[in-house]
Amino acid sequence: MNARNMYPLAAMLMFFICAAGAGQSEPPDASKEWPVPHSSSCKTTDYPLPGLTPYVNKVDGFQFKYPSALKTEGSSLEFENWTCVNFFHADESISMEVTLPALYQEPFQARGRGVSVDTRIFNQLKWMSYSAPGWATDCTFWKREQVCIQGGAVPSHGPLSDEIVKAMREIESTFVFSISDRMDSKIAKVKVGDRFGNLRVSRVVTREMAERNPRRSYAGSHVSYGEIDFIGSVSMKGGLEDFRTMNSGPDWLFSPDAEISSLLSCNLCKDLPFHVEFTNDDFGVEQNGRVRSRRFGPISYSYAANFSVVVNNISVIFSPGRSPSVVRANLVSIVESH
Questions:
Q1: Class of the CATH domain delimited by 30-180
Q2: Are residues 69 and 37 in contact, defined by beta-carbon separation less than 8 angstroms?
Q3: In terms of Cα–Cα distance, which of 151, 183, 123 is closest to 321?
Q4: 186-213: string of b/e by CB count within 10 Å (b at 16+)?
Q5: Residue 321: its pLDDT value, please?
């Protein structure tokens, strides 16, 4: 073909390309696709903007987008209607559960009768979908981390709304993992001898270490991202509560008032829910009994009050999802705060 004939052909090719581009529909407008339906019986101007909102979870290492008509608080993995918004049906919500099994595990709902099972692929992630009248659970698994999205109402009252099914699909289609942001990756970077305020790291147990030798980890690799032990002591204020049952002895837990990150000066502890377990049971029971008998007498099985405690020999076990991480520590002293 000579050069003179190439120019008309090139012009025709460009015409068809431009015509094809002009005929394509524009990408959907998120604000129109995801409205915020207001309740006519509720008077407020505090509505979110229509569209989608990004959710980033650096502890569990994933992110996605969800309808702005829904709200979630803090690090919670539960999404429900904004106040005065009628996006979901009454009492409907979406919640997420994060676990750390070695292999994929079917959710317990999948074992019931009449459950439909389907498979979907988004962003190279395989989602197993289990559904029955009134509820749906979709799960994915990557790098020994499992995330399940659960949609429904409590108590269940009829079929799921179209909006809850659509919202679950949107979360899945935008869901991606990031192992570099996950807590076990951050724990692996901590070294023995590192200092955090008054504390010095004495031992680091990663998930991989615990899987090779489960006895090395108090919590076990299947329920925690890892463990960091510290030498040194810290003081903190908070409340005590006894979770004993009718058939058990005392089961005391201490809940700090302030963020645990400010108590331990540990960046990995930031914004994580924690409770503290005392490892020296005899001393703890003696101290707790002394404080309780002086003020409360031998009455309640549980109570919360203001106390100051000093602890040392601290171990932090990092849990996934909304499960509270555990601080295990030796109780040095406890006094009632005034």
A1: mainly beta
A2: yes
A3: 183
A4: bbbebeeeeebeebebeebbbbebbeee
A5: 85
